[in-house]
Structures are given as structure tokens and as C-alpha cells.
Amino acid sequence: MDKREAMIRHYFDMCNAGDVDGLVACFTPDAVHYFPPGLPGAPWRGAEAIAKGWVWCVRELGSQWTIERIMLAEGGAPEAVIEWTHWKRKKNSALRGDEWYRFDPESGKISEIRAYYAAPASKDVPIDELHEFDYAGRGYALKP
Questions:
Q1: β-pair type (63-72, 79-88)
Q2: Rounded-to-integer distance, Cα 94 and Cα 104, Å
Q3: Going residue by residue through the chain (144 aa), what tens digit of pLDDT does each one get?
Q4: Which residues, in sequence order, are bridge partners of residue 66?
Q5: Which pTM was predicted?
Q6: C-alpha closest to that of 46 among 64, 26, 63, 60
Q7: Dihedral of CA 10/15/20/26: which sign?
Q8: Which of 20, 25, 63, 125 is the most buried (most CB within 10 A)?
Q9: CA distances from 102 to 11, 28, 89, 123 (A)
Q10: Quick count: other Cβ atoms within 10 Å of Cβ 59?
């Protein structure tokens, strides 16, 4: 497995486990996680802030994440993009989106994540996702 993919998968494992130390170890100390407008405190700056943000989500929202797709930049460039689902089990809802990753070439750690949501968050639907896209037919996770 490519080291970029391995790091992303490990990062998601640490998110799902709510492991602060494991999450911090995935990032450069000055890493930044950008989000669409509306998330309080965004962007999250620094490995510890990112870790604490996700641990809060696990504890307060029952968050779990699934990776749907991973695309790696050609030629080993220190970049990748993924498609994911963020399951908010305590709210019986989910959010789908993409993230673009940049890695520190020397350490292989994540230095930047840019998150993009599939659709604006809507309180009227249980799962925020693209309208009429066949998630089941394309093999996407339909539960955490």
C-alpha cells in the first residue's frame, strides 16, 4: 500500500477510535484543516487542535467515518484526495464530502486537509448528500 494511502487510513482509524495521541501523530505540528464556512473555530490549526476537534465529534455526535474512495497524485507527489462519509450516529444523520490532502515530503505526515461537503448541511434530511446520486449502486457505505 502506498504510504500516503496508509497514512490516510491510519488517520481515519484514529478518528474512529477517538485517539488524541494517535491523531496528533498523523500531522505535522503546524498542520491546518480547512472547512466550508459555518463550522465554529474553523479552520483547525495545529495537530493538537485537529485531534481534539475529532475526539469531540466522536464523544458528542457519535461520529464515525468511512472512506469511500482514495485517489493518489501521480508520480508520488505529496498529495491525495478522498471521498468520505461522516456518520453522526447520535443525530441519526450523515454528511458526505471530499478532502484534499498535502503531506510533508520528509516525514510523510499530513500537513494540510481541505474539506469540501457534497451538499449544504440541511436540517430537513437525515443524510446530506448529492441529490439523486446512486450511492448504493456505486458501492458507498449506507451505515456506519
A1: antiparallel
A2: 30
A3: 999 999 999 999 999 999 999 999 999 999 999 998 777 788 999 999 999 999 999 999 999 999 999 999 999 899 999 999 999 999 999 999 999 999 999 999 999 999 998 876 667 777 777 667 788 998 989 998
A4: 85
A5: 0.87
A6: 26
A7: positive
A8: 63
A9: 13, 11, 29, 32
A10: 11
